[in-house]
């Protein structure tokens, strides 16, 4: 079968062949990816071509082993393997070359010489040809041949760096390039590889390119010494004389002295007058009083032969214009029938006038007149409506702004509230039993009064006074004195909008607040509040919860029914733990404990009884000593 030509129909598969594996040609050597030559074909068939290439001609020469003549050679340690793409990374050989291009149908040139750079990349033996761009050349320049392996001949070989040298002609894709020079790195690399470079050549000059360079070269010329507009534009551009002047119009009704800035542009001899506005001057913010233009000294000074009745005056009829010589500190000029006094100028203007006109006196003129007396603002008296701070803002500005607040005080006392219990001091009998909670905010010194809701009392509870600052009675309206924290203590009477409140109690935070500030609160006030809290904690006397404030049930069975109704879901284990807690508190085993301890124990055991029924139970179980019989109290939960 091997003798048959390799044509369709003449090739047959080997039915005995079952292995179609291919040899591995990609691998790693010393940590680098490197290709390997396959040792066998598909299915481990022997390769048709010999593995020895023409690049190793020494393998074809039969030599006598050197060991027979000189003995065994000592092997040197193997060198580290570095692949070509890493060893020659970013290493490029650069050659300067040129090629001659034929120009058809041009009377100026027959050929054109174009210089190029040949780059040889050592990492993969690729070549790139780039032509430097020339401005206004009219030709597509840049990369002529992209980076690739360039064929050297028809036998399949490619250009190698060993084939390149100076003074030779290389042909890439049918275009001949003459190599004339190279850079220093290329010379050192060729010398290290044992290649001697030829002499350096020069690129022939292109006549057409030389003529273009001569035409594009800057020609020098001599400008006439006379001052003309072009020279004025080039020398005086962006140079401006600035004078500070004032228009005194106080002779007319409601006249005043109005400041202006006069700017003289040296580039075209134009003048601009700008207004100077001050805050709240009552004038529209127009920036210009006179737009930039040439300013005549006397616009009406024209010849009598000018037909002004039918023609408008133009710049040709005016012969006398303002110039920098007409301006100086202390002079008065007339602009649009207004007299302007120049009282000062800037430093550049002073240097210009000193250098060109010899002026030396630039002392500013004092134009400050008699200052008018400032009208004193009188604040009207407070009428009592709203707060005084809000009413004062209506007098200070046309659009009232919110009063300024003490933010440091608000940050330090944020969410800090003093709460007091109070009663209404009134002659009316129905107000005797009313109770109130007064909240004093330390952040803004505002008060809030709340009345707890009591069923069947006939009084609608809730917010009695919304948050506001309350002034003390008897103080004048224009100088109010507001309540402060030291005005609240046990027994104090606070009058709020003709309602008198007597303070009877306060929370623990108020007690701590008073103890930390002995300079504001007398010791007697602190002691009174401490005794109040101690009596509440001990549960003695009239402060015992439910002993005197709550009437006992007349029918004991009714009391037991209410207790059983609220204890339906309370398990027996919780009842036993409650009795054990009472016994732990009763150290002397007297069967009596304090009211406060009993309430705390019931609260910890989550006793499902409301406060009103709890007070009734405490009244039933009370002892003459002020303590509570917890055994009797426990019997209410065990009776069926």
Give a brief rundown of this model.
With 640 residues, this protein is α+β, with helices and mostly antiparallel strands.
Given as residue ranges, the uncertain stretches (5+ residues, pLDDT < 50) are: 50-55, 540-554
What is the average per-residue confidence, as pLDDT, rounded to a whole number? 81
Strand order of the largest sheet: 6-5-4-3-8-7
The outline comes out as flat
Tally of DSSP helical segments: 15
Which structural class is indicated by helix and strand composition?
Answer: alpha+beta
Kindly report how far apart the N and C termini lie.
Answer: 116 Å
Please bin the fraction of helical residues. Answer: 10-25%
Number of strands: 22
Strand content: 15-25%
Computed over alpha carbons, the radius of gyration is: 56 Å
Largest sheet: 6 strands, antiparallel
Q: Key terms for this structure?
A:
22% strand; 6-stranded antiparallel beta sheet; 22% helix; alpha+beta; 640 residues
Description:
By secondary structure, this protein is of the alpha+beta class. Helix content is 22%, strand content 22%.
SSE order and pairing:
Layout: E1 26-29, E2 32-35, H1 67-70, H2 84-87, E3 92-102, E4 111-121, E5 126-131, E6 142-148, E7 169-172, E8 175-182, H3 184-192, H4 207-216, H5 229-236, E9 240-248, E10 257-265, E11 270-275, E12 288-293, E13 332-335, E14 338-345, H6 347-357, H7 388-396, H8 407-412, E15 417-424, E16 435-441, E17 446-451, E18 462-468, E19 493-496, E20 499-506, H9 508-516, H10 523-538, H11 556-566, H12 572-585, E21 592-593, H13 595-604, H14 611-620, E22 628-629, H15 630-638
Antiparallel strand pairs: 1-2, 3-4, 3-8, 4-5, 5-6, 7-8, 9-10, 9-14, 10-11, 11-12, 13-14, 15-16, 15-20, 16-17, 17-18, 19-20, 21-22
Helix pairs in contact: 9-10, 12-13, 12-15
């Amino acid at each position: 079968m091997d003798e048959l030509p390799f044509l369709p129909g003449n090739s047959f598969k080997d039915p005995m062949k079952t292995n179609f594996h291919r040899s591995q040609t990609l691998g790693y050597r010393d940590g680098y990816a490197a290709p390997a030559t396959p040792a066998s074909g598909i299915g481990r068939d022997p390769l048709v071509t010999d593995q020895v290439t023409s690049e190793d001609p020494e393998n074809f020469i039969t030599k006598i082993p050197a060991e027979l003549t000189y003995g065994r050679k000592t092997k040197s340690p193997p060198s580290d393997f570095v692949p070509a793409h890493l060893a020659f990374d970013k290493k490029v050989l650069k050659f300067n070359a040129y090629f001659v291009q034929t120009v058809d149908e041009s009377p100026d040139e027959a050929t054109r010489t174009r210089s190029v750079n040949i780059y040889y990349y050592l990492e993969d033996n690729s070549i790139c040809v780039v032509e430097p761009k020339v401005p206004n050349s009219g030709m597509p320049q840049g990369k002529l041949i992209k980076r690739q392996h360039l064929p050297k001949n028809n036998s399949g070989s490619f250009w190698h760096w060993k084939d390149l040298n100076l003074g030779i002609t290389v042909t890439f894709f049918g275009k001949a390039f003459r190599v004339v020079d190279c850079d220093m790195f290329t010379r050192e690399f060729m010398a290290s590889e044992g290649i001697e470079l030829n002499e350096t050549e020069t690129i022939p000059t292109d006549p057409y390119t030389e003529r273009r360079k001569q035409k594009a070269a800057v020609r020098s010329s001599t400008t006439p010494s006379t001052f003309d507009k072009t020279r004025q534009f080039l020398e005086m551009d962006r140079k401006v004389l600035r004078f500070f002047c004032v228009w005194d119009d106080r002779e007319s009704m409601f006249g005043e002295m109005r400041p202006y800035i006069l700017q003289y542009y040296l580039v075209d001899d134009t003048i601009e007058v700008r207004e100077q506005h001050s805050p709240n001057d009552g004038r529209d913010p127009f920036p210009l009083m006179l737009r930039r233009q040439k300013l005549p000294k006397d616009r009406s000074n024209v010849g009598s032969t000018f037909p002004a009745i039918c023609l408008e005056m133009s710049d040709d009829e005016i012969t006398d214009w303002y110039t920098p010589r007409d301006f100086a500190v202390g002079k008065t000029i007339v602009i649009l029938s207004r007299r302007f006094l120049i009282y000062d100028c800037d430093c550049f203007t002073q240097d210009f006038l000193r250098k060109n006109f010899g002026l030396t006196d630039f002392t500013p003129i004092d134009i400050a007149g008699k200052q008018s007396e400032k009208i004193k603002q009188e604040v009207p008296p407070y009428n009592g409506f709203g707060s005084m701070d809000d009413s004062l803002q209506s007098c200070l500005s046309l659009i009232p702004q919110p009063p300024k607040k003490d933010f440091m005080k608000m940050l330090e006392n944020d969410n800090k509230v003093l709460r007091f219990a109070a009663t209404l001091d009134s002659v009316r009998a129905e107000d005797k039993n009313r109770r109130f909670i007064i909240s004093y905010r330390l952040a803004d010194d505002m008060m809030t009064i709340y009345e707890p809701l009591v069923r069947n009392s006939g009084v609608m509870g809730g917010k009695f006074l919304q948050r506001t600052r309350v002034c003390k009675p008897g103080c004048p309206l224009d100088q109010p004195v507001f309540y402060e924290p030291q005005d609240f203590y046990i027994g104090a009477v606070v009058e709020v909008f003709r309602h008198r409140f007597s303070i009877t109690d306060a929370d623990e935070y108020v007690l701590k607040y008073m103890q930390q500030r002995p300079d504001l609160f007398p010791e007697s006030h602190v002691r009174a509040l401490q005794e109040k809290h101690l009596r509440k904690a001990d549960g003695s006397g009239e402060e015992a919860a439910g002993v005197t404030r709550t009437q006992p049930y007349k029918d004991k069975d009714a009391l037991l029914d209410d207790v059983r109704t609220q204890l339906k879901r309370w398990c027996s284990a919780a009842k036993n733990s409650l009795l054990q807690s009472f016994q732990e508190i009763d150290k002397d085993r007297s069967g009596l404990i304090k009211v406060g301890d009993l309430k705390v124990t019931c609260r910890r055991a989550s006793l499902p009884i409301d406060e009103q029924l709890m007070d009734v139970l405490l009244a039933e179980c009370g002892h003459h000593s002020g303590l509570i019989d917890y055994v009797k109290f426990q019997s209410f939960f065990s009776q069926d």
